[in-house]
Design a protein that fits this description.
This is DUF2550 family protein. With 151 residues, this protein is an alpha+beta fold. Helix content is 29%, strand content 30%.
Length: 151
Amino acid sequence: MEIVEGVGIGVAVILGAILFLFIRRALVTRSGGIIRLSVRTTTMLDGRGWSPGFGRFVGDELRWYRMFSFAVRPKRVLSREGLTVERRRLPEGQERMSMPADWIILRCTSRHAPVEIAMARSTVTGFLSWLEAAPPGAVSPPVASQDWPAA
């Protein structure tokens, strides 16, 4: 009987964790402005280090949440102020295996450090519009245009 109880507790814990992940995602996505977004968390190996997730636009911030995480807070926050796009490229080598074929990789520079983000080609236009849009009286950050593959 102890084995059955152990299996039952294990199944209950797994179901509880899955339920929590769905509730977390529902809470984060409840007010819209969500995009699928991968962020490169490490550059130790070429083409590796991409973490899938979703981004949420909140005012002047893009908040990135890991797809498979129990954290309710965003893992990374990119502020529109001080964020510039240096380069746009297609996935290369190992990256083609870890993300959909129609995704574009943007190398950005923020106040803190460089960051690489990947998103669908159709989402890039919206992201760049958000980046260039600024409150009245503010200066929009420059968006580099060299080395951009045709969309």
